Structures are given as structure tokens and as C-alpha cells.
């Protein structure tokens, strides 16, 4: 476990182990590798609606969408609402791999049977991150909803998992009760 720095992080790109604070948008918070510490610093030019994860960081917190609410529906329409504008296809994509030790452990699991919990967590986290990126893409296009949302998954080079969440970005508005 690393010791949190006593000074604020330097300006410019976010330094290692400093991440957007999940409790206070616009702030950075120090992650010691296993838990959040109480060390905080103002983010440098951060857009609280932007979805970012820390590439290559071990146990980095998942990217989350922090912008205005985006309705995500697997249906082609939303009961009680009408589509007023279509912004086009949007997607959120994540490609991840497990470390070599996790792969060895999972290969033993395949010999003896049972759930490969590490891979289950990897895929669950990847779906959440792909959906957060999808919501960011909807926001960036000016929509407030995504309809016909789907997930797709593939394997790349027998080492990495690709998860994509995709759908159609739209603007919806609530129908009048009298209609």
C-alpha cells in the first residue's frame, strides 16, 4: 500500500493514483490501491460529465457518467414519451484483459470446474464502463436518451475481452396526460 502524498498533485495531466472523486465532481481524490483516502485536490480543467478511466491502472475506479440523466432503454420506443429528435448511432467500447496470474488461476478453474469469479467481475465492470461511455456519447450528441440499446462482446487474440454498448441517441419528451 502506497503512502498518499502530502501535497496537492501537480497541475497538468492527472498524476498516477489521483482520480475523479466519486463523491465530489470537480475534485481529485487519492486512491492508495485498495481504498479512497481523505486526500483531495481540485481537478485541473475537469469536465464533471466526462467519462474517463485511468489506462493501465490496477484496481482503478470504473469510469462513471456524471452528467445530466440519460434514459437507457432496450426498447425501440419509450412508453409515455415521444422521440422529438434522432441523433444517430452511439456506442461505448471497452477492451480489457486480466493479468497473467489471473489467467493462470482461471485455467485451473477450468480444469476443476466452477465460476471464474475474476472473469465474471471483469465482464461486469466492463459492461458498466461501456454503458457509462455510451451515456457520455449520447450527452455529447445532445440527446437525453438512448433507445434500442444492446451489448455485444468479443474476444481479441484469446487475451482480451471487448464489450460494446450501442444504441440510438435520441431526444425524448414526456407526452401530455391529455393526449
State the gist of this model.
This protein has 179 residues and is α+β, with helices and mostly antiparallel strands. It has helices at residues 100-112, 117-141; strands at 18-20, 27-31, 36-42, 71-72, 81-97, 145-156, 160-174.
Describe the structure.
Mean pLDDT is 75; it is low at 1-10 and 45-49. It is globular, with a radius of gyration of 19 Å. It contains 2 helices and 7 strands, in the order βββββααββ. The chain has helices at residues 100-112, 117-141, and strands at 18-20, 27-31, 36-42, 71-72, 81-97, 145-156, 160-174. By secondary structure, it is an alpha+beta fold.
What is the percent of helical residues?
10-25%
- As for the number of domains, it is 2
CATH topology of the largest domain: Translation Initiation Factor IF3
In the CATH hierarchy, the architecture of the largest domain is 2-Layer Sandwich
- For the largest sheet, list the strands in their spatial order: 4-6-7-5
Largest sheet: 4 strands, mixed
Contiguous low-pLDDT stretches (5 residues minimum) are 1-10, 45-49
Number of strands: 7
Write out the CATH superfamily name of the largest domain. Answer: Hypothetical protein apc22750. Chain B
The sequence of SSEs as H and E is: EEEEEHHEE
Oligomer: single chain
- The number of helical runs is 2
Q: What general form does the structure show?
A: globular
Q: Note the gap between the termini.
A: 60 Å
CATH class of the largest domain: Alpha Beta
The fraction of residues assigned to DSSP E strands is 25-35%
Mean pLDDT figure? 75
Q: What is the structural class?
A: alpha+beta
What is the CA-atom radius of gyration, in angstroms? 19 Å
Amino acid at each position: 500500500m502506497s503512502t498518499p502524498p502530502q501535497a496537492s498533485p501537480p497541475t497538468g495531466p492527472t498524476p498516477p493514483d489521483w482520480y475523479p472523486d466519486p463523491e465530489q465532481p470537480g475534485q481529485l481524490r487519492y486512491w492508495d490501491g485498495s481504498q479512497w483516502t481523505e486526500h483531495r485536490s481540485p481537478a485541473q480543467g475537469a469536465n464533471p460529465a466526462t467519462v474517463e478511466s485511468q489506462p493501465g491502472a490496477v484496481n482503478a475506479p470504473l469510469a462513471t457518467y456524471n452528467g445530466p440523466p440519460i434514459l437507457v432503454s432496450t426498447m425501440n420506443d419509450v412508453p409515455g414519451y415521444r422521440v422529438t429528435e434522432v441523433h444517430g448511432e452511439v456506442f461505448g467500447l471497452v477492451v480489457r484483459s486480466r493479468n497473467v496470474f489471473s489467467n493462470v488461476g482461471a485455467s485451473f478453474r477450468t480444469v476443476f470446474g466452477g465460476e471464474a469469479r475474476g472473469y465474471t467481475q471483469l465482464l461486469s465492470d466492463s459492461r458498466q464502463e461501456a454503458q457509462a461511455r455510451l451515456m457520455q456519447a449520447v450527452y455529447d450528441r445532445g440527446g437525453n436518451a438512448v433507445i434500442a440499446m444492446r451489448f455485444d462482446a468479443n474476444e481479441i487474440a484469446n487475451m482480451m475481452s471487448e464489450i460494446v454498448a450501442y444504441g440510438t441517441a435520441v431526444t425524448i419528451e414526456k407526452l401530455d396526460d391529455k393526449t
